[in-house]
Structures are given as C-alpha cells and as structure tokens.
Amino acid sequence: MNFSEDIYEALLKDLFSRHPSVQTAGFTPGAYKPGLAGMLGFDAALGHPSQRFRSIHVAGTNGKGSVCSMLASALAARGLRVGLYTSPHLTDFRERIKVVTDDGVGMISREEVFRFLTEEDLEGLSFFEITTGLAFRHYAECGVDLAVIETGLGGRLDSTNILTPELSIVTSIGLDHCALLGDTRAKIAAEKAGIFKPGVPALCGERDAETAPVFEARAAAAPCPLFWAEDFDAELFPTDLAGPCQEANLRTVLAALELLGEPADREALAHTAARTGLRGRWERLQDRPEVICDIGHNPPALAINFRRLQESGRPLVIVYGIMADKDLAGIRPLMPPQARYFLVAPEGDRALPVDRLAEGMAGLDCTVCGSVRDGVRQALDAAKDIPDCILYIGGSNFVVAEAIDMFHG
Fold it and tell me: Does residue 144 contact residue 99 with C-beta atoms inside 8 Å?
C-alpha cells in the first residue's frame, strides 16, 4: 500500500477505533491492559528496540511532561539527539514521538507511522502498547543518543516499564486514577515507584511523610540509590513554562542533570516550550483579553491553578469541561467562587455531559454552552465587558486541544 494523506488519516482513525486509548475510551478492557507481557512480546517481535538506546524514565501524577521536555531541551543543548516520548497529544498524534536536537525539534514522519501501521501485526495490542512500540523502534532506528520516556499510567505495569534506564524519576504524587492505582497517595506512590530498577539511581521530586517511606522501601527492595530533589542546591530561574508547578519541576530537572553529570544549560531550560514544542502548560493564547490554557485536570493540579488565578486579584472568566471519570466533587470546592463560568463538553464519549457538569457546579455563575468553540466564543464576548480579566481554559486535555486548534489551527 502506497502512502497518501487520506489513507494515513484513515489508518489513524482505525487505530483509535480498533485499539481505543485510555485518553478517548477510558479504562475499558480494550484500552487499558495492565501488565508487561503484551509489551514484552511486541518488543521482541520488533527486534527488541527498547534495548538499543539509552533512556531516562519519568513517572508521576503531575509534571511528567514538563520534566521530560526540560530534560530533552537541556540534553539537546549538549549536542545530543534526544528522543522525547510523551502523552497524550493535543492536536497531532505525532506530538507523542519527537526527536530534539540543538537545531530544533522534529516529530516522527507520517510516512513512518504509515509503514508501521500497515506492516506490523498489531492484533490484540492496546493503543498505548502500539504507540510505545512505534516510539521505541523509531528511536532505535534513527540513532538517538538518549530518549526521555514518560510513563502513560502508573509505572509498575506501564508499557514503558520494559526499559532499563540510566535514571528513574518520579515527579509528584496525587490522587488520580484511584480506581486503578489505589485510593491513597501511598498506594499510588507504590505504583509509580514500580519503575525503580536494580542499580539505577532513582530521583523523587517531592518528599513527604506519606509517600517517602514507600519510595525508601521500594528503593531498598530493588535495590537502587534514592535521591530527593530538595537535597540538591539549585538556583531557580524563569522559563517559558509558566505554570504554578514549574519551579518544582525545574528543581527536579536540575537535580537529574547533576546526577547524570550534565551541566544545566540555563538558556535551553529557559526556552523549553519553544525548543521542544510543548503546549498547554499555562500557555498564553491571546493577550487582550489575556487567555490562558492549561491541561491540569486532577485536584492537585487544579488546586494550584485555581489558587494562582485567585491570587492574581483580577476578574476571572473560565471555560471549563471535564471527563466523566474525574473527581468533580473533589474539584468543585477548589473553583474560584467569584468567576464567571462557561461550561463545555469536548468531543468524545468520555466527556462529562454539560448538563451533569452544571449540576455539579450548582451555586456558581455558570453558562451552559453547546461546544468548546461555542464556550470560548461566549467567554471572549463576555470578557470584552470585564476590564483586566483573565480568561482561563481548562479542565481537560481535550478542552485545551480544541481551544488551541481554535486559536492557532
């Protein structure tokens, strides 16, 4: 079969329908397949690409994508070809599989994705197993010097956990995906710490009384040396990742670079988003009115985002949508009470219907909208009459993706 844009788009559509992802289908049997047996078999069928490149493995509830991108930017500035595997994508499937160099960033080609989807036996594999296999083979064949690999969900049973990296990182621990990972931060920490490998240094981005004993026990069992980001001397500085969590992420990255014996290129780190194409992290989409979007979608991330919005002291207009499996009851008390809300349901079956979202947000000033595009348009109209307001768009990766496409598509 010869490549064409139409066939390529049809193949991607078929990939999402026949091998649904957790991102689109939730934790259904077809989308979520815990355990490593399927991935190990697939890796073997592909010629064990996971063993043919050096790697850094990153898990955590929040901050994974930012930490991965910062590391890729800093290492590329050293002259390395750095693979960058993150998820989910926002507007283009190929965002998941990048190579970063000091000259810029490139995504895997459509032609390579096309060949992989048409030539490999993908029967019985999950979406994330397929994507991970594609990424690993791409990095092995294009000769990256090192790849920074983000886990998809958890760590212990995640498809990426067939790697033996040079450094394992856990960024943060919060309550998310509790039905699968556990209903306490300690249980979730145990799943994330499942990426620790014998003899491979492990770095944790945060230390607290509930999770530290879990990490210490897992490191002792591996065994592997365990480090904490806060124990490293670090001079923090502004970057183009402007979100509320980015100081903690930067501290983790600076500690990781020290453990790797690599200098921290301040210029490269300061321009991480520009150098790696990272989007949706407190990203400014427009200046007047100021429009900010952020992919934070669980209570720990949203608590920080909403607090930052309120601390600005400025009037707030918020376009908000959420997936049906998210903890709306836990998020509702965090939401700024004086904001004006425009409620949306992004495309896809997983989205919480907007009428149910409105019920869960009773008591707030809410307008129900027909789509993300409709909600953004109504919010922009409202913002014209509210001097010095901030228009925030968030609650879901899908909401942010549709908004980015609307502003810059």
Answer: yes
Total structural domains in the chain? Answer: 2
Render pLDDT for 285-333 as a digit per residue (tens, 0 to 9): 999 999 999 998 888 889 999 999 999 999 999 999 999 988 899 999 9
Residues 249, 308 within the same domain: no
Angle at 267 between CA 262 and CA 272, to 5 degrees: 90
pLDDT the model gives residue 62? 87
| Residue-wise pLDDT tens digits, 377-409 | 999 999 999 999 999 999 999 999 999 999 976
Can you tell me which residue has the tokens 């998020």?
331
CATH number at residue 43: 3.40.1190.10
| Residue 244 sits in the same domain as residue 311 | no
The 3-class secondary structure across the chain, one letter per residue, is CCCCHHHHHHHHHHHHHHCCCHHHHCCCCCCCCCCCHHHHHHHHHCCCHHHCCCEEEEECCCCHHHHHHHHHHHHHCCCCCEEEECCCCCCCHHHHEEEEECCEEEECCHHHHHHHHHHCCCCCCCHHHHHHHHHHHHHHHHCCCEEEEECCCCCCCCHHHHCCCCEEEECCCCCCCHHHHCCCHHHHHHHHHHHCCCCCCEEECCCCCCCHHHHHHHHHHCCCCEEEHHHCCCCCCCCCCCCCCHHHHHHHHHHHHHHHCCCCCHHHHHCHHHHHCCCCCCEEEECCCEEEEECCCCHHHHHHHHHHHHHCCCCEEEEECCECCCCHHHHHHHCCCCCEEEECCCCCCCECCHHHHHHHCCCCEEEECCCHHHHHHHHHHHHCCCCCCEEEEECCHHHHHHHHHHHHC
Please tell me whether residues 179 and 317 are part of one structural domain.
Answer: no
262 and 293 belong to one structural domain: no
pTM of the shown model: 0.91
Q: Of 276, 308, 330, which one is at a domain's C-terminal end?
A: 276
Q: How far apart are CA 168 and CA 243, in angstroms?
A: 24
